[in-house]
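Gluconolaconase: structure, please.
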Amino acid sequence: MWFPAPRTLTPRLLSRLPDRHRQPRRTPWADANRGGAMLDSFLEGPCFDAAGNLLVVDIPFGRVFRVGPREWEVVAEYEGWPNGLAAGPAGSLHLADHRHGLLSLDAATGSIAPLLETVGGEGFRGLNDVVAGPEGQVLFTDQGQTGLQDPTGRVWRLWPDGRADCLIRNAPSPNGLALDRAAAHAYVAMTRSCEVWRFALRPDGVVGKAQCFLRLPGGLMGPDGLAMDARDRLCVANPGHGLVWVVDGFGVPAFVVDCTGFGRLPTNLCLAPDGTTLLVTESQSGSVLAVELPPG
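Here you go.
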């Protein structure tokens, strides 16, 4: 690396998907994304609802869980591939679904409604992640099966009045999303090029000088979920290596969270309400991990 070795942090187990929710079987999602493996779950999208409850999604089985220390409650179960979750208006949640587009989830009742299924009559490639921006904006990635062979993934922004801006349209597998705390810049994980891009958010939808903010070591999988901590440090899930990187505002690695004691698939991230406890969905073991991020 060009920088000093980051300090290694070891996560702890917060909660594991109970066995009663695990029924290993082959699914169309696993056929397309996991080589047809027999899966009992694939967790992503950790997010806190308005009541302070932690929710996660289970992509291949169309489930959204409310996570407890031992018991997990099924909030919603439907015919879809839910991937990303973010806080929405009036206590609702935005749900990025690979098959159905952008949805709205009522965590109290489990009801799901379409929010944006097409733009200009054209469907999406397959949504992945979603994040809430300022003034009611919603940013989401449209990943599909794009990659280095087809760098046409997109990053969208939806305004409260229904306008949709295509901010990026040449992305090699756009995945996780995060905004800095001022909501001035967006960060996007480009899984297949092993990069995180950074660009300024402008109200006119014009994007200029998008920058490669971070480049990760190559391997079987590049960066997945992103999260920004209370000190504007970017946390980057790297399932290809079983790690989570924590980098400062200049892109210099400060910490690396080694998740390999639980599995090699840390897929997505969120910060707990305290702003310093990082939660990680580890999808190989079907668990949620937690680690406290030091101040410096």
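Notes: The chain has a mean pLDDT of 96.
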